[in-house]
Amino acid sequence: MNLEIAHYYLLVSAIIFTIGVLGVLLRRSAIIILMSIELMLNAVNLAFVTFSRINHSLDGQIFVFFIMTVAAAEAVVGLAIVIAIFRKKVSTDVDEINLMKW
Amino acid sequence: MIFAITAAVAILSAIIVVTHRNPVVCALSLVVNLCCIAVFYLLLNAMFLAAIQVIVYAGAIMVLILFVIMLLNLPQMERRREPAGLLQSILGGLLGVLFLYAIGRALSGYSRGFEAMPIREGFGWTESVGRLLFTNYFYPFEVISLLLIAAMIGAIILAKRKI
Hints:
The complex is a heterodimer. Helices cover 76% and strands 0% of the residues of chain A. By secondary structure, chain A is mostly helical. The longest helix of chain A is centred in the C-terminal third of the chain and has 31 residues, at 59-89. Helices cover 75% and strands 0% of the residues of chain B. In chain B, helix 1 (2-19) packs antiparallel against helix 2 (23-43) and helix 2 (23-43) packs antiparallel against helix 3. The longest helix of chain B has 25 residues, at 47-71. Chains A and B meet through helix 1, helix 2 and helix 3 of A and helix 1, helix 2, helix 3, helix 4 and helix 5 of B.
């Protein structure tokens, strides 16, 4: 693998992260927002692995391992919240979840 | 060459994730995206992470998300919803361009002048990652187990109808 294309990996990571941000901002379905968060986490993981390869240090890969665990926990709790709200409102639209709106 | 194809597929599937109306299609194209990122990991000498990516992310987490989508019968719910407003889309697009520019500026400092470093034997394989995980990162590793238990208990309590 040649390291001259390492900045393309970072570019792909940035593009995927931006798409995830747009998904969080523009979509209204709570589950699709959760999936966009997964996209962003994966983009950051890709950047971590790229830096790990560039600096020839395994610490970045350990960080990715931890991020994956946190992402699993986040997905589980997020989906449980979605199910709990769906029981009350029969909808996953985040515009209708205005319980804590001031 | 492999990189170019994989990058194109990854970006395309990411766009499908945030634009498609049917949540099942979104979830399946997210699986495609995760597999593409696993290929990137392989190209970057992170074999252990590539395996974990496919098993944990594309396997476990995506099955969970698909299960919830099917349980709540979301594809029918999604049909009677109006698309995002025009103003919202324009503002979001502008913000996206700005965001990409900012990240590009931040990353461009790193993108020049790499020496092609030779890879040490076993870099990124399970043995080296596991050795580091159980020496330098042992306490974070134990804290992670606590976090997973907390998440599990929290999910059970949230999803239970009556305690």
